[in-house]
Every structure is written in C-alpha cells, then in structure tokens.
Design brief:
By secondary structure, the protein is an alpha/beta fold. It is built from 15 helices and 25 strands. The strands form six sheets. It has a nine-stranded mixed β-sheet. The protein starts with a helix and ends in a 9-residue tail after the last helix.
Length: about 500
C-alpha cells in the first residue's frame, strides 16, 4: 500500500536537485535537501515513540524546518497539528490536551513556559527554532537522510486544524489525505500552476491558506517558492519581479496599494494574484486593476473543507463574489430551518459536498452530526446566494445574522452601502442587545486615511438605499476593525465592545 499524499507531494521529488525554497538571505533549498531534512525529522518522530495516527502539535515560527516537520509527519503517518503562533500558553494547553498530542514542538524561547503545558497533557516537549536550532533539530541530526515511507490510505487522517472558536470551544477538524490531495490537484489544474511557477509566499503556515493551498499546490506542480517569514512590504516589493504568482489576504493587497513603488512595471512578470481568508473590498479590486492591470482572483474556503469555490482563471473575475464551485465540489444554498434548496438569487445557508470536505470534528460526534449531513453535505455556517450567472456571493456568517424587530438583516448588504460612501474605508455591521427590538443594528466605520466621515451624509445615503428596519440605529467611527491573523474581521470582539450600547442602565 502506498502513501498517496506523500507520494504525490513529496515522493516524486526525492533526489531532485531543483530549487524548492528561496529564502530571504539568498539561500536556495532544493527539493532533495528539503526531503533529506524531512526524513531525519521523521526518524526522530518515530524514535520518540509516535505511531501512525498519533498527533504531533507544533507552535513554531515559519521556516523551512517548520515545513519539513509537516512533510515528516506525512511520511511517518503521523497527524500534523499546526497552531497559531499568537496563541498564549493557556490557549495552547487546550489544543494539546484535546488532540491527545504525543509530541509538542515549540520555539526554544518558549520552552520553559510550555513545559507545564506539555506535562499536563502527557505530551513529550521538544523545541525547534527558525534558525535551525532546538532540541528536536539536534536529535534529528543523528538520523539517516532517508526514511521508509509509512503506508497510508486516502481515508487516513493527515492533519487536524482547529477552528477559531469565536462562538464556543474550538473544534478540531479532521482532514484526510484525500481531503488535502484532491483539493491540491483541483487547484493546481484550475489555477494553471506548473513547474515553471515561482510563488511569492508570505502567508503563515499554521493555516489552510499558507499550508494546504499555497504549499501543497506548489509541491504538486513541482515549482518553487520565495519563502518569506512574514509579510514585509520592502521584502515583497524587492522579490516580486522574480515571482510568477502570489497568494495573500486582503491586508497584503491594501498595504501594497499604499506603497507608491507598487505599480504595473513591478507586477508585469506575475500571471496570477489570489486573495482569500477574508472578503476583499470592491474598491480594492478596482484600485488594484487600475494600478497594475491585474484582476485579483478571489476564492472561498474554510478550515473544514479547504477551497470550495474560485473565480475563473479565464473569464470574468467578479468583485463581490467568490466565483463558481470548483470541479468536483457541489454547492447549494438552503433554508436554515428546513434544509430545502433555495432558488437562485435568494439568500440562505451555504452547504458543500465533495472530496475536500473533512471527516468530522475530533471527539465531538454531536457537533459533527449537527454540521455534516448524512448525505455528505457540510453546513458551512456561511450565508450567501448564487446569482443569475452562477457566481457565489457570501453575505456573512449565520451567527452574524441580525434579527431586529422580527426582521432578518444581512450585515453585508448594509456594509456594501456604507463602504461605497465618500470618506469610508471599510465598515462592519453588527447586532447588539436592544430592549425593544431584541437586537439593534450598529454600523462600525473606519475612515479613509486623512479623511473625515460625515455621519449626516451617511444617514442620507442609508435612507435612500435601505429600508428603515435595516438601517443602523447607531453609527460609530473607530480607528481600525479588530482582525485575526488571517485578516478576518472579528465581529465577536465588536459585539462584546458595544454590548451595552442600548442598555438604558449602562
């Protein structure tokens, strides 16, 4: 029996002396050298007693070695669990304990802080640093540069990714080899990646976007990556002329547009810009095309499914949409109460089915049953519609739906109107407790740099464009919207901040 994921992504590159990772210091790591490193890591993982199906949790900085741990886990049949580097020790404790991780790798600088975390969870603790240092790296150096790949099937688990947990305990999404491989194969073909591509990679690798989209696609295509530790505007601009493609979150693109060095000449060598992880403003689309001549390709995915839809490579990339369902992925919009499919143009909950859809939530059978139907459709929790041309539009999360005075209000509709007004950079519309209406609509606004927002003019625009029940009862201007590391607006933070806005006793 083979190991489908390792064979497709890594195995065919064994001994291949072609560039894989180009680093900030000018060093290049070949496919062969990378896989020798991964084999030594796999040797140490098994020497520490991990068996196929065991979990290995990591909270380590982005580096070639961090990526090699992922490859080592796939080769050894161990389930890889990457954790956000911003998590505190108390947050990490939940993930390590809940996953039952046998081994936990942390940064050398946090080893003392993480020792009690590992001990409480019954996990071995080793360290791995971005400079190739740490106890795990030192021990791995004594192992062979080859490792006998452990046989696995497509249905075997390859990774756990924990959801962000804004509405309760984080859930461990169980992803199989087939989930990851099928999605990488589809995206490689759909976005036309080949071994001649050089991807500008500045995303974190503890998340679907940077790891299972960007990295898996490039491994499958056989191309190379400019592997930057994080988004740095000077490094991005310096390395962009080398690249043929870039994947980023909306913040990457807005920051590039803020820099006068970013222009058509700088981007002429790039064939594809992809954006995801959070919605891209229509204004950003317009500015980007005007500046560079490129249309950003926006797509839609999530922790439990990897990628579900994409705007077309050829054809109209429509702002405000996430394109069409990917080949092999079924998508429908349903009534949240009945599960019945809705007609085109009507808003409902988005459900998807395909080989990319996860196996369920780790040790949460009830939650799995709630969100994963018996027929294989996954209830994403996103609200959206399919327009007359078949493009999918996301209007928000089900939990972000506002019910005010018995009326359903979709925040995206209000946000689009607000964002389109002079002086408004972006907005977030939330519902907070209201004594008369149940929930009161609040518009939280960020002004354009060096600009002023005339709230009176906004009120006029709202009166002209929206029914009275949809209009925010309060408009609040703040400096910046709270976001997570992938650029998603954290509406739960805003709801907490303004929870007592309409409380007469506050």
């Amino acid at each position: 029996m083979a190991n489908p994921l390792f064979d497709a992504l890594f195995g065919r590159h064994l001994g291949r002396e072609t560039p894989f990772l180009r680093l900030p210091d000018g060093q290049t790591i070949t496919h062969a050298a990378f896989l020798e490193r991964a084999a030594r890591f796999a040797g140490e993982i098994t020497a520490l007693g991990l068996q196929p199906g065991d979990r290995l949790a990591v909270q380590i900085g982005k580096s070639p070695d961090a990526l090699a741990v992922y490859a080592a886990c796939v080769q050894a049949g161990v389930i890889f669990l990457p954790l956000n580097t911003g998590y505190t020790a108390s947050e990490v404790s939940y993930f390590v304990e809940n996953s039952g991780a046998r081994l936990f790798l942390c940064d050398p600088a946090s080893e003392a802080e993480m020792t009690p975390v590992a001990e409480a969870a019954g996990a071995e603790l080793r360290s791995l640093g971005v400079a190739g240092d740490g106890t795990f790296v030192a021990a791995a150096a004594h192992h062979d540069a080859t490792f006998p790949t452990v046989p696995r099937s497509g249905d075997d688990l390859a990774a756990f990714l924990y959801t962000s947990g804004t509405t309760g305990r984080s859930k461990g999404a169980m992803l199989t080899q087939e989930n990851l491989l099928s999605n990488a194969q589809t995206l490689t073909d759909y976005w036309r990646f080949t071994d001649t591509d050089l991807l500008l990679h500045a995303l974190p690798i503890f998340h679907t976007h940077g790891l299972f989209v960007a990295t898996n696609v490039m491994l499958l295509a056989g191309g190379a990556m400019i592997f930057l530790p994080k988004f740095d505007i000077d490094a991005m601009i310096a390395r962009m002329p080398e690249a043929t493609a870039m994947m980023g979150v909306p913040t990457f693109y807005t920051r590039l547009l803020d820099d006068p060095r970013f222009d058509r000449a700088l981007t002429h060598h790039i064939r594809l810009f992809v954006s995801g992880s959070a919605p891209l403003l229509a204004e950003t689309h317009r500015q980007f095309e005007a500046r560079t001549g490129h249309r950003i390709l926006e797509r839609y995915g999530m922790t439990e499914t990897n990628m579900n839809t994409s705007n077309p490579y050829d054809g109209e990339r429509r702002a405000g949409t996430v394109g069409f369902p990917l080949p092999g992925v079924e998508l429908k919009v349903t009534d949240p109460k009945t599960g019945a499919e809705k007609p085109k143009g009507e808003i409902g909950q988005i459900e998807v089915r395909g080989p990319n859809v996860f196996k369920g939530y780790w040790q949460m059978p009830e939650k799995t049953a709630e969100e994963l139907r018996e027929d294989g459709f996954f209830i994403t929790g996103d609200l959206g519609l399919i327009d007359a041309d078949g493009y999918v539009q996301i209007v928000g999360r089900n939990k972000d739906l506002i019910i005010s005075g018995g009326y359903n209000i979709y925040p995206k509709e209000v946000e689009l109107l607000l964002d389109d007004q002079p002086g408004v950079l972006e907005s977030a519309v939330i519902g907070v407790p209201h004594p008369d209406f149940g929930e009161g609509v609040v518009g939280v606004i960020v002004a354009e740099p060096k600009g002023d927002v005339a709230l009176g003019d906004l009120r006029i625009a709202l009166d002209q464009g929206l029914a009275k029940f949809k209009q925010p009862k309060e408009l609040i201007v703040i400096d910046a919207l709270p976001r997570n590391t992938m650029g998603k607006v954290q509406k739960n933070v805003l709801r907490e901040r303004f929870a007592s806005l309409f409380d007469k006793n506050a």
